[in-house]
Amino acid sequence: MKLLTTRICMYSDVGVHGSLFGGTILAWLGEAGTAFACEHCGSPRMVTKRISEVVFERSVKPGAIIQIYGKLVSVGTTSLSVHIEAHSRDPEADREELVCKLETVFVHVDGQGEPCALRWTAHKHGARARRVALVAPGPVSTFRAARIHPAPDSSATAS
């Protein structure tokens, strides 16, 4: 997964129980996911269609470093799906723990806010450029996805 952004949990981000407010981290995940989707389709006109179930695995205290990661899961005619995770990073212990994860579907829209076809045919995974075949055009309301499978890790060495 690609590191999308890093945040620090401030006292202003904390709820009544002394931990990071759930709405704040959801806003961070939404912003990072939207920017990631826009980067991949080459347009700032991406809107959120669906957010999957969110399970908060652990609380986050003020001062914690939050790293948000994302990866492209699938591509449709007008939309794409992104997996997003937030991790709490403890640099002193060199440890990272999952805070929450979700999957979001973003739709490309035109100037009037209506769904329209994605305009791109390639995206990058790390240093590797990879072709993505968009499925045959269909009705705009139909989400027809082509699954994206990660390329093998080229840095692994054979023994």
Describe the structure.
The protein has 159 residues and is mostly beta strands. The protein has one domain (2-147): Roll (Thiol Ester Dehydrase, Chain A), CATH 3.10.129. Helices cover 13% and strands 39% of the residues. It contains 1 helix and 9 strands, in the order βαββββββββ. The strands form 2 sheets. Strands 1, 2, 3, 4, 5, 6 and 9 form a 7-stranded antiparallel sheet that branches. Strands 7-8 form a two-stranded antiparallel sheet. It is elongated and about 45 Å long.
CATH architecture: Roll
Helix content: 10-25%
Number of strands: 9
CATH topology: Thiol Ester Dehydrase, Chain A
Number of domains: 1
Give the CATH superfamily: Hotdog Thioesterase
Describe the largest sheet: 7 strands, antiparallel
Question: Secondary-structure blueprint of this entry?
Answer:
Layout: E1 2-8, H1 22-41, E2 46-51, E3 55-56, E4 65-75, E5 79-90, E6 95-108, E7 122-125, E8 128-131, E9 146-147
Summary, kept brief:
The chain has one helix spanning 22-41; strands at 2-8, 46-51, 55-56, 65-75, 79-90, 95-108, 122-125, 128-131, 146-147. It contains 1 helix and 9 strands. 13% of the residues lie in helices and 39% in strands.
Question: Which descriptors would you attach to this protein?
Answer:
159 residues; mainly beta; Thiol Ester Dehydrase, Chain A; seven-stranded antiparallel sheet; two-stranded antiparallel sheet; 1 helix; disordered C terminus
